[in-house]
Specification:
The protein is α+β, with helices and mostly antiparallel strands. The protein is built from 19 helices and 28 strands. About 35% of the residues are buried.
Length: about 750
């Protein structure tokens, strides 16, 4: 009896194929096979919210191959990922292929190991329609909200911008923090540090240094000066020594959220980079499924981990634990992210995979070990008159490592203090007061935003990485070091949504909608009613806002800034290239200045193009600075004998304009003639496609460099090492052969036929 087992990725198919006998044929769907069409009008029946799916581009051959193999099989097993998205993919495959009377069952496993797969094959089930509908509801909801909100933002803010059901609340969180930072007023204070010597001798027979910090931070300079003056005059001694033993307990095994946070903090990985590496480790059978909000570990896993601890660190360090899952909607049947075999200390084929596996291994093994113990020491000192606040020094040292044996990177540095006793004399070396200023709250890092989204119930494990990537791709936020800073565009979009759709991007509403999707998944709420209850009032709200004025005004400019044309007051506005100052009387007066009050940039001739002998002009447009040359119009075609002559136009033929954007990292005023000629070499014709004989072109657009052939656009990614100015025909043909994928998805290989 032959069986066809279908998974999503070729890598996963390859790993599973090693574990199964000849009676199984394992193939990959290469991700999703169907999706909503791009046209919103055709995508969803607005009466019943029934989606109308189409086969994804390039998946016709994949489905045909699955159908061909299914005809030769006695049973079809759908073994897609063990979550709602996996359930939806399984259902789409069954719907698209139409297996007929052939038995079609669903099998799930949380790890790709031989034992887990053999066990899963013993318990096949039907497709869970509740899970599938919950995923469908999310997809339909996101499409409806995204299209409607994006549409009104195009009208009222700027064309080409977007909004989303979960993306917009995440942006609001970042913008709210930015407003706190902008409104923050720093206050001065003084830190006072006394450098002293204790009678205790070091190994070099020198008096031990002891740095003490004043326990109070006076705001008043006179008080700070008084403490320093008195401190210099009087004798110092140890007022007290406090030692406290404390335990350090290990953290729970990783969920998706905590994995992304730890990888960001300790490895410097973005959430999307973390998930790419985790996906590869999962598909290769090294870790369990990486999209989970459960901290649960199976009994078999705990036994395996305990055996590893005993072997590596000794039986006395084993302490098995059960961790409470914080997410109320976590599926306890799922496990935490853990190694499939704790005996394997290293795994992965790339550096990212190896580092991430090491992090997962350390966290998982440490979670089943004994507490560490630290001794915390606090030394208090003062002068004889006690007329100043206590000065203190804090130290700690590890006295028992416990779980830190498995995860030494989590230990941190010990701060050793000299051995002193109450009443010991101290010799003052120096005492200094330094003025400092209070700091505004920090911007969120990617790890911090993931933690915040999870704590507020916004999104789910599978969405955190894509939320942040979307905000960066849309240029609503930029990364400054590890911090996420909203751009001018992000600030305006968020303000517009908060003012007009505050209810729909609030924490409460977004979290409650996630709960309703969970209720669809467990069968306690219906699909159609849930969507109708949300969308009908939402769509009325959107229509009611269509008469609003455009929302590109950011507030009044400094009164000292006057319109260069009429001398009137000015306002701050958002343009294509960022903020600028506009006359408050616009459109009656079109006076404008740069944000710093300087003149708006004027067209500037850089030089003469050496090949075309025409001037190259630097200009500023709605998408930023660019260079332009004006070429003579194409000559009128010579009529072919026998053809009807075309009527000559009375208008003079228009000149041909060739334009090229100045890269963002280049300052417009620094563009040289050679650079301008280089930029104008685009678009480049790379050659013709051998099958269609149509031209393949390389160019740079709004979203970066790309190649295009017959309407098929492919982005040229930085990570690929390709350069839009150098890429050749052969490389372009390779890129066009790769199956096209939705934005944000990992690269997939074609199905082996």
């Amino acid at each position: 009896m032959s069986k066809l087992l279908i998974v999503e990725s070729p890598a996963k198919a390859k790993t599973i194929g090693k574990y199964l006998g000849d009676e199984y044929v394992v193939v990959a769907s290469v991700g999703h096979v169907r999706d909503l069409p791009k046209s919103n009008k055709k995508a969803i029946d607005m009466e019943s919210f029934t989606p109308h799916y189409v086969v994804s581009e390039g998946k016709e051959s994949v489905l045909a191959d699955i159908k061909r193999l299914a005809k030769k099989s006695d049973e079809v097993l759908l073994a897609t990922d063990p979550d709602r998205e996996g359930e939806a993919i399984a259902w789409h495959i069954a719907e698209a292929v139409e297996f007929g009377d052939k038995p079609v069952r669903r099998v799930v496993f949380n790890e790709i190991t031989k034992d887990a797969i053999i066990e899963a094959l013993k318990s096949p089930r039907d497709i869970d329609q509740n899970l599938r509908q919950a995923q469908e509801a999310r997809r339909v909801l996101d499409r409806l909200v995204g299209y409607d909100l994006s549409g009104i933002i195009w009208q009222k803010v700027r064309y080409g911008l977007s909004a989303g059901r979960v993306q917009s609340p995440a942006l609001r969180i970042l913008v709210e923090r930015e407003r706190e930072i902008e409104a923050f007023k720093p206050e001065g204070y003084f830190t006072i540090v006394a450098e002293t010597k204790a009678d205790t001798k070091t190994n070099k027979n020198e008096s031990a240094s002891l740095s003490l910090t004043c326990s109070e931070e006076p705001r008043d300079q006179k008080e700070a000066g008084r403490i320093v003056t008195v401190g210099k005059k009087e004798v110092w001694s140890v007022a007290d020594v406090q030692e406290t033993e404390a335990k350090r307990s290990p953290k729970a095994p990783f969920t998706t959220s905590t994995l992304q946070q730890a990888a960001s903090t300790r490895l410097g990985f973005s959430p999307s980079r973390t998930m790419r590496a985790a996906q590869k480790l999962y598909e290769a059978g090294h870790i369990t499924y990486m999209r989970t909000d459960s901290t649960n570990l199976s009994k078999q896993a705990v036994a395996n981990i305990a055996g590893t601890i005993e072997k590596l660190f000794g039986k006395e360090l084993v302490e098995t634990r059960v961790y409470a899952t914080k997410s109320k909607n976590a599926q306890e049947a799922h496990e935490a992210v853990r190694p499939t075999d704790a005996n394997k200390r290293a795994a992965g084929s790339t550096d990212d995979e190896k580092r991430l596996y090491g992090l997962v291994w350390a966290r998982t093994v440490a979670s089943q070990m004994k507490d560490g113990r630290v001794m915390r020491t606090k030394i208090l000192a003062n002068i004889a008159s006690k007329s100043v606040p206590d000065f203190q020094a804090n130290g700690s040292r590890t006295i028992y490592k416990g779980w830190l044996e498995a995860d030494p990177a989590a230990q941190g540095d010990d701060v050793e203090l000299p051995k002193v006793s109450k009443g010991d004399a101290l010799s003052l070396v120096d005492i200094v007061a330094t003025q400092k200023f209070t700091e505004p709250p920090s911007r969120y890092s990617e790890a911090g935003l993931v933690k915040e989204l999870e704590s507020r119930g916004i999104g789910r494990p599978s969405t955190y990485a894509s939320i942040i990537k979307t905000l960066e791709d849309r240029e609503y936020v930029t990364k400054e070091g590890r911090s996420l800073k909203p751009t001018d565009t992000g600030m305006v979009v968020s303000s517009f949504l908060e003012d007009n759709f505050g209810q729909y991007i609030s924490d409460t509403f977004t979290a409650e909608m996630e709960d309703k999707l969970d209720a669809i998944a467990d069968g306690s709420m219906g699909y159609e009613k849930t969507l109708a209850d949300f969308y009908k009032p939402f769509s009325k709200e959107v229509k009611a806002k269509e008469k609003l004025d455009k929302a590109t005004t950011l507030g009044e400019a400094d009164p000292s800034m006057k319109c260069p044309k009429c001398g009137g007051s000015m306002i701050i506005k958002l343009g294509r290239s960022g903020k600028f100052l506009s006359c408050a009387k616009y459109p009656d007066c079109d006076g404008a200045l740069m944000l710093d009050g300087t003149e708006m940039p004027k067209d500037k001739v850089i030089g003469v193009h050496p090949a075309h002998n025409v001037p190259i002009t630097l200009k500023s447009g709605k998408y930023g600075p660019y260079v332009e040359i004006e070429l003579p119009p194409d000559p009128e075609p010579v009529p072919v004998e026998g053809e009807k002559k075309k009527r000559k136009s009375k208008k003079a033929p228009k000149p041909k304009l060739r334009r090229a954007s100045v890269p963002k990292e280049v300052k417009p005023e620094e563009v040289t003639l050679d650079q301008a000629v280089h930029y104008l070499s685009l678009p480049r014709q790379l050659g013709t496609h051998p099958k269609t004989q149509k031209v393949i072109t390389a160019n740079i657009g709004r979203f970066g460099p790309y190649i295009v052939h017959d309407g098929d656009f492919r982005s040229i990614k930085k990570a690929s090492g390709d350069d839009v100015y150098k890429i050749g025909l052969d490389r372009a043909l390779e890129m066009l052969k790769e199956p096209k994928k939705p934005r944000g998805f990992n690269k997939k290989k074609k199905l082996d036929k």
